[in-house]
Design goal:
- The protein has four helices and 13 strands.
- The strands form four sheets. It has a five-stranded mixed beta sheet with strand order 7-13-12-9-10, with no helix packed on it. A three-stranded mixed beta sheet has the order 3-4-5, covered by helices on one side.
- β1 and β2 form a beta hairpin.
- The longest helix has 15 residues.
- The protein is globular.
- The termini are far apart.
């Protein structure tokens, strides 16, 4: 038996060397115990045994909702993603609208119409004026004819306005880039990726009715890719919390998805907070607050 020990030890060492690399400490976890059972899930939607999710780097072009068919709503409707502005950055929300063949123009018209009163209360606004038209889509490039004065307000404002249009239109599979007539070069999401905040929340949307567990999705570029979420009831009490890791972070943007269970909540107003825990002092930073309509928790 003694002769078998060295080969067995070598085999164990080789197996250990093949284990996936760890990133080290995740930093401080969200402070305070949670009164509810929570589930953190990885990008696949399956519960994670540990807070370490697979780290597949993504490019800025795949952040937010990737180019693809917009989600379908009830029969005869179409749910589209609209990218509004807040504090100089791009912020997504959703609209369910009557279905039409001209989906790009439908989204553009909704974008120009601006945020709802509930969305406006969270600081969302639009810089896109009415009258901006899609005249042609060919070779995955949408050509627009903007109205007079489209680029007024200074270079930064004009760029954010264009970014709203580009990020909204490139959700559709037929559009990868947008050209503004008469002679501007076509641009895509990558050209405006710096206008994304550290944490983007694509679900839930402002004012959405949610049930436990609430699914939270988006993208983030945060310390060690760690994204934290808590659910607050109408009185501001924490009733659920969880955290997970995005597919990339600390200098690159990755996607995240997790389910957060909450309890002891009466039906009514609530808030989903998505944030980063500061590596320096454990405080909540880069907080995104989404007002929601909570279904009663169990």
């Amino acid at each position: 038996m003694r002769r078998l020990i060295p080969p067995l030890a070598a085999l164990l060492l080789l197996t250990a060397g093949c284990a996936p690399p760890r990133t080290g400490t995740l930093g401080p976890a969200p402070a305070g115990p949670s009164p509810a059972t929570t589930t953190a899930t990885g990008p696949t939607g399956t519960p994670s045994a540990t807070p370490h999710a697979p780290r597949t780097p993504t490019t800025p072009a795949t952040t937010g909702t990737p180019p693809g068919a917009a989600p379908t709503g009830p029969e005869g409707t179409l749910t589209v993603q609209l990218w509004f502005a807040r504090a100089g950055k791009l912020v997504p929300t959703r609209r369910t609208l009557p279905a039409t063949v001209a989906t790009s123009q439908l989204a553009l018209t909704a974008l120009a119409a601006g945020p709802s009163p509930v969305e406006t209360a969270t600081g969302l606004s639009t810089l896109v004026p009415a009258g901006t038209r899609v005249t042609r889509i060919a070779g995955e490039v949408a050509t627009l004819v903007p109205p007079a004065g489209f680029d007024t307000g200074g270079a930064a404002t004009a760029r954010l306005r264009r970014a709203q249009v580009v990020w909204t239109l490139t959700q559709f599979p037929t559009v990868r880039r947008v050209a503004f007539a008469p002679a501007d070069a076509a641009t895509g999401r990558d050209d405006y990726a710096d206008l994304l905040p550290p944490i983007v929340v694509t679900a839930p949307a402002v004012g959405e009715r949610v049930t436990s567990p609430v699914t939270v999705t988006g993208t983030a570029d945060v310390y060690e890719a760690t994204v934290s979420v808590r659910v607050l009831d109408g009185a501001g009490r924490e009733i659920g919390t969880a955290f997970t890791t995005a597919s990339c972070g600390s200098g690159c943007r990755g996607a995240y998805r997790l389910n957060v269970r909450y309890g002891r909540a009466a039906a009514g107003p609530g808030t989903v907070e998505v944030y980063e825990v500061s590596a320096r002092d454990g405080s909540r930073i880069n907080v995104v607050r989404i007002p929601v309509d909570l279904a009663a928790g169990r």
